Amino acid sequence: MILEKINEQVRYAYENSGFYREYYEDVDVDPTDITSFEEFRELPVLTNEAIKREQKEHPPFGRFLCIDENGIERIYGTSGTTGRPKVFGIGAGDWDRIAEWHAQILWSIGLRPDDRVIITSPFIQYLGSWGALQGVDRLGCSTFPFGAGMEGQTEQAVEWIADLRPDALYGTPSYAIYLGETAEEKGYDPTEDFEFKVMFFSGEPGASVPSTRRRIETLFDCTVIDQGSMAEMTPWMSNSGCRHLENGMHVWQDIVYTELLDPETEAFLEYGEEGVPTYTHLERTSQPMIRLWSGDISYWESPEETDCECGRTYPTLPRGVYGRVDDMLVIRGKNVFPSQIEDRLHALDAFGDEFRVVVENEEALDTLELVVERDEDSDVEDDEFRALVRRSIKAEIGLSPNVTVVKKGTLERTQFKADRVEDRRKIPVDI
Ligand code: 8LH
Question: Looking at residue 431, what is its pLDDT?
Answer without folding.
Answer: 41
